[in-house]
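Researcher: Please predict.
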Amino acid sequence: MDTEGLLQCTGRDGETRQFKYKCIPEQFSQSYSYHVYAIPPLDSGEFFELTVEDMENDALKITMMENHKIPEYSATGIPDALIPHIAKTFQKAVVSSSNGVRAGEFRTPDATKVWDRLVTNGMATKDEETDSYECSA
């Protein structure tokens, strides 16, 4: 598994940008946090963050996705590039949380927009019954 690399992302404005990512395995769980940094890195050290949890059913579930309201990470296409990259890297499907269908889960409206874009671009599918999305490896 690659722990660092570069992502090519296309933003809402149609511009392609390159970002650097680091994959950080969580010490006491089956989770991995991806930190995505602008090139050059922001002086503040802030980053886009996405965490996946390795599920028992050969899938990774996104448990957190956050741009921290940083303009350099907003509308830049980071999750659109990162989610398929994670699926390919682990050779596992990446799935979303449901939107309240399963107890203890929720999906934000912004996350739903990300997943809907992936569906529109043929990179993910939506299961209407479980109200969840999947990006296959």
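Model: The helical segments are 78-90, 109-120.
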